[in-house]
Write a structure and sequence with these properties.
Blueprint: E1 5-8, E2 10-13, E3 19-24, E4 35-45, E5 53-59, E6 62-70, E7 73-77, E8 82-85, E9 90-94, E10 99-105, E11 111-120, E12 131-135, E13 140-143, E14 146-152, E15 154-155, E16 158-159, E17 168-175, E18 179-184, E19 190-197, E20 200-202, E21 205-207, E22 211-215, E23 225-230, E24 234-241, E25 249-251, E26 254-256, H1 259-271
Antiparallel strand pairs: 1-22, 2-3, 3-4, 4-11, 5-10, 6-9, 6-11, 7-8, 7-10, 9-12, 13-14, 14-17, 15-16, 17-24, 18-23, 19-22, 19-24, 20-21, 20-23, 25-26
The protein binds manganese (II) ion.
């Protein structure tokens, strides 16, 4: 009997008609460990004069995690960081009590391929100081003709430098020749597999780029491994983590442990308080701010 949960990706508009495919959160499975949000953007080639442009918006209670595969995106934030991200690099922004950022294609009319994820912060770090970290080097190795890039956590004696605050894994597999690959699993983790390019099967079940599969903890007790079969020329994202037991509220760009905390953040954003400072553009002017949708409760 199948223990895999197949989550169909849904389209989400990041603004100006730029569509991404969203896997998490889903009604079928809300989070994978502390991974609480998963968007797959592209691969896409923008028309001349077009690109990704996400105006100034706030975050609280989470880390945003960006993995870039193609294109170049400029990050600017309210702490003053101005950081381009290139393929093979990770941006990690810890929102804590509050931060504001913008994300823009560096050159319009080019391509973009990225995964953007959010990591819920544990309750004791909900109000920590905001922080931004850029990682231009991650552990990369090859096994059985598959290129492994460890984005978060530990695997096979390798450890990623990315600073997270709960037990997590993020791994990219990339191959040219079709092949099976067995990954050792942590019995305390749940896992998800997302196809970034190509396709694969997971525990014998076919997965394409329109679906994310989740393996719940204990859902496959006899399996000590995650059994993948990679199609030729694939790029696969594997996520894992200990199920996040604390209650998590999510609304717009906010993650918190209560609705009150989210309502307070929304009011602070709408009133333009010092909790959410401006982001300066290249010309020194404050970046245009995105408006929060009305609270649903
Ligand atoms: Mn953001």
């Amino acid at each position: 009997m199948s223990t895999l949960i197949h989550i169909p990706l849904r389209a989400a508009d990041l603004g100006e008609g730029f569509l991404v495919r969203r896997a998490l959160p889903s009604k079928l499975h809300r989070m994978v460990g502390a991974w609480c949000f998963l968007d797959h953007a592209g691969p896409v080639r923008f028309a001349q004069g077009k690109g990704m442009h996400v105006g100034a918006h706030p975050h609280i209670g989470l880390q945003t995690f960006t993995w870039l595969m193609d294109g170049e995106v400029m990050h600017r934030d309210s702490l003053g960081h101005v950081q381009p991200i290139k393929p093979g690099q990770v941006n990690l922004m810890t929102a804590g009590r509050g931060i504001v950022h913008t994300e823009d294609s560096v050159t319009d009319g080019t391509s973009l391929h990225a995964a953007q994820l959010w990591i819920a912060l544990p309750e004791h770090l909900q109000h920590c100081e905001p922080r931004f970290q850029h990682y231009d080097k991650l552990p990369v190795w090859t096994e059985q003709q598959v290129q492994f890039t460890l984005l978060v956590g530990e695997l096979a004696g390798h450890r990623a430098p990315t600073e997270v605050h709960s037990p997590l894994l993020a791994l990219e597999l990339r191959n040219t020749v079709a092949c099976p690959i067995d990954l050792p699993t942590n019995a305390a983790f749940e896992y998800a597999v997302l196809v970034l390019e190509g396709g694969c099967s997971v525990q014998g079940e076919v997965v394409d780029s329109q679906t994310c599969v989740v393996l719940p903890r204990g859902g496959n007790v006899e399996a000590q491994t995650l059994s993948l079969k990679l199609n030729a020329c694939s790029r696969i994202l594997v996520l894992g983590g200990e199920p996040f037991e604390q209650p998590v509220q999510m609304w717009w760009n906010f993650v918190a442990h209560s609705k009150e905390a989210i309502a307070r953040a929304q009011a602070d954003w709408e009133q333009g308080t010092s909790r959410f400072p401006v982001v300066l553009q290249a010309n020194g002017e404050p970046a245009p701010r995105l408006q929060a949708p009305a609270l649903p409760w």
